[in-house]
Amino acid sequence: MARTVRYLTHPQVLIEPTKDVRQWSLNSIGRARVSALAARPEVLQQTGKVISSDEVKALETALPLAAALGLELEVDPQMHENDRTATGFLPPKEFERVADQFFANPFKDVRGWERAIDAQCRIVAAVEACLAVSQEGDVLFVGHGGVGTLLYCALSNVGISRRFDQGPGGGFWFSFEAEERRPLQEWQPMETLRVGRQPSEYSAEGFVR
Record's superkingdom (predicted)? Predict the structure, then answer.
């Protein structure tokens, strides 16, 4: 039986400029969205493993979902977001400009950030290592929009580009079959997860950059 693999990004976070971004938590909207999904565990009922980045916002997304599914959460530090410690917090408009440069210049360490090509190799290797282990059930990865987009590009066999980024606010997912390693659809909001419906039934219009 084919295994479905889903990659879910954390939703909205509480922006705290003086705090390490890796320690940021979900804000009230993000927490509410996670709680709503955790209250519907049947939409992920075939999931046999949940693996999360070790960043706080990802853990706060993954832990309630794993608990609702009766699974022990696995944490993989290699699933962290692209390393931006060189600049620390950047005001939103400046961050967006640098993020555009990050995706547009994948072989360059833009302002000291981890290169996009290196972050892509890291997230792909983390996913491949997990899927190489024989197991039953679907797999849910919980992580971040940046490396999630890099993973999406790699699986789609397209060049790194921000036009494949998730929608605003986070809390999006895409899926692929473990054997085929090709995305079944573009990014979708986490609220679109439904029992018994196939990803191809959804339209991503309006949610993908």
Answer: Bacteria
pLDDT at 43 over 50: yes
What is the number of helices (H) and of strands (E) in the chain?
5, 6
Coil, helix or strand at residue 177: strand
User: CATH number of 4-17+24-43+55-192: 3.40.50.790, 1.20.1250.20, 3.40.718.10, 3.40.50.1240?
Assistant: 3.40.50.1240
For 78-104, what is the mean pLDDT?
A: 96
CB 188 within 8 A of CB 172: yes
CA distances from 118 to 5, 137, 157, 191 (A): 22, 30, 16, 31
The pLDDT score that the predictor gives to residue 208 is 34
pTM for the structure as a whole? 0.92
